[in-house]
Specification:
- The structure is a homodimer.
- By secondary structure, chain A is an alpha+beta fold.
- The first copy, chain A, has one domain: Alpha-Beta Plaits, CATH 3.30.70.
- Chain A is 31% helix and 34% strand.
- The first copy, chain A, contains 2 helices and 4 strands.
- Chain A is globular.
- In chain A, 29% of the residues are buried.
- At the A-B interface, helix 1 of A face helix 1 of B.
Chain lengths: 68, 68
């Protein structure tokens, strides 16, 4: 299991809910933590790489990048 | 060309920007109009059906449905 951190341009609770909804559907993703104010999304992943997670997060239409 | 209307649960300018970004990338989609307050998204489409457009809009993680 690997922990990942992303910067995601979220501006309201609807934004963070949308990101949470996308990540929740992914296989092997757990412990999703979203800090709306800092625009930071953290999660653990057993199957997907940071790049694969980022591709999914970007499907929300929000500017996103890998932090760690 | 067909005009479509969707109800999309957007709550801020970031939400509507995200929906606009997703629709803008689709082939044959034009005249995108978003009313954030009424949670309404309208667009014209030459190739994709309403169901196909809805599938793409739902990738934003927001609750969405076809209005017309």
């Amino acid at each position: 299991m690997t922990s990942h951190t992303f910067n995601v341009d979220m501006t309201c609770g609807g934004c963070s809910k949308a990101v949470n909804a996308i990540l929740s559907k992914l296989d092997g993703v757990s412990n999703i933590q979203i800090d709306l104010e800092k625009k930071i999304v953290k999660c653990d992943s057993t199957k997907l790489t940071a790049e694969e997670l980022l591709t999914n997060i970007q499907k929300t239409g929000k500017k996103s990048s890998i932090v760690a």
